[in-house]
Amino acid sequence: MIIIKSKTYYSAPKGRVFLSAAAFLITIGAMIALNVLRLYLVDRFGPYINEISGLPITAPAEPVMPFSAKVVSAIMIIVAALYVIFIVILLPMWYKSFKFVVNEKEIISYSGIFSRTFRIMKLSAVQHVSRISLPLSRITCFNFVSVNALGGRLVFMFLSEKDCAEIMKMFRSDGIAGNAAISAHARATKRFAVERTSEGAADYIYKDNSGLDGAADIMGQLSGYSQISFDDSQGDNEQLKFN
To answer: Cα–chain-centroid distance for residue 119?
Structure first.
């Protein structure tokens, strides 16, 4: 059984490196494509300096960049500026802002650059946990764990393979989340032992705080009944009813 009082997880540094590398390659490709387009526009639509009527041309005419090529050049400058702002400056800050704290009762998520966001999820409310791993995730650390609860979701982002496997193991039945869910269920329900009474084949009484090990045998003998219910509002020795 896994018992972890509190542990903090961070996004793996390798993930940021691969994100930056991918963004750099995409930016370089976009710049090359835009430059080819700009040169084509200059070559195809670039007018030459008009001759001044009545004056001889003493020097070769020089091409003038057309307006469409100027627009492409402006786009190239914007793309370069966006790369510097978002990839070089903001991406490392955003990536380092993620922190996830898991303890025996809840999950706490921290994120945000300019404004910090805190989210808390009770482990007893967790309904479903899923893992998403992109190709080569062992190297790139592109591992994500989505924790779904009643009315909310938390996503652990860019986890290392070790942290991802550890978190998934914790949310199994032998982990802290399973322990919390089992404890909550045990507090909300009672277990009873049933005994047949002499009043009829479908009448039983129960003893409080025992196991239901014998219930399976009794229900097996009563194949015509689909539901079992009981009322403990009046104290001990109330009847269980089969419907």
So the answer is: 13
